[in-house]
From TrEMBL:
Residues 8-246 form the AB hydrolase-1 domain. InterPro entries: AB_hydrolase_1, AB_hydrolase_fold, Sec-Metab_Biosynth_Hydrolase. This is AB hydrolase-1 domain-containing protein. SUPFAM superfamilies: alpha/beta-Hydrolases. Coiled coil: none annotated. Pfam families: Abhydrolase_6. It comes from Clonostachys solani. It comes from the Eukaryota.
């Protein structure tokens, strides 16, 4: 069978379950795309907290690879889409797996493009997201207990500022509420600016969780080829999935 459309893998943000992508994934599947929604290894429920200790973005990379490599090895191309924290393992998962890199090793298939929604870019190899040797601060809506961050309800209107109250409540109930502290403390030697495939950044202009000015900086640091500005909060795949779908389809068709 010959495939003309790439596989789309959707990597969720911090505390988000794969089901947060449901509306977007359904729209993509209706257009004939194979869609993968891997879970994050670093987050879960408070009852799972001990299992989360010490898990990092590298554990998420392994899950992403376990989902996409069977398709790449079968000659398929892939577009990697990520949200917020998910941009960190998504970027790491691209290393060595682009169409060009795999072809150089005599392999077919590969990652052809990436789309990042309100995501992060490391400014310096081998340093933290701050660009130095310090760990990022703990957010006011996180409570740290035994190396696990527990998400607190003040995050709800920040994550979902452009949803009505009913939408916010539903999205909040669909979140995992615990994530390893270690997942936010990576010092990677491969960073977004090293990625040479086409990269699109969706900048959320009304974001209350990741300031739009910071997103602007991350897009520049990551050397994204294209910036798409949406009048959305932090989670446009919930508030305006049709707009996000258009961006992903554009990246898939390029």
């Amino acid at each position: 069978m010959s495939y003309t459309k790439p596989v789309v893998v959707l990597v969720p943000g911090a505390f988000h379950r794969p089901s947060s992508w449901n509306a977007l994934a359904e729209g993509l599947r209706k257009q004939g795309y194979t869609v993968l929604t891997p879970p994050l290894a670093v987050c879960g429920e408070a009852t799972d907290a001990k299992q989360l200790v010490g898990t990092t973005a590298l554990d998420d990379v392994r899950i992403i690879h376990s989902n996409i490599l069977p398709f790449l090895d079968n000659g398929r191309e892939c577009v990697v889409v990520s949200h917020s924290y998910g941009s960190v393992p998504a970027a790491l998962a691209v290393e060595g797996q682009t169409v060009e890199e795999r072809a150089a090793k005599g392999l077919s298939g590969g990652i052809k493009a990436m789309v990042t929604i309100a995501g992060f870019s490391y400014p310096v190899r081998g340093k933290s997201i701050m660009g130095d040797d310090s760990e990022p601060p703990i957010m006011p809506y996180h409570v740290l207990e035994e190396e696990v961050l527990h998400l607190q309800e003040p995050a709800k209107p920040l994550f979902y500022s452009d949803l009505d109250q009913e939408g916010q409540d539903a999205a909040w109930e669909n979140l995992s509420k615990a994530q390893s502290r270690a997942s936010f403390c990576l010092f990677p030697n491969f960073i977004t600016s090293d990625i040479l495939i086409p990269k699109t950044y969706i900048l959320c202009e009304q974001d209350k969780a990741v300031d739009p000015s910071h997103q602007e900086a991350f897009a520049q640091i990551g050397q994204y080829d294209k910036i798409v500005r949406l009048p959305s909060g932090h989670s446009p795949f919930l508030s305006m999935p049709e707009r996000v779908l258009e961006v992903i389809v554009g990246a898939a068709q390029s």
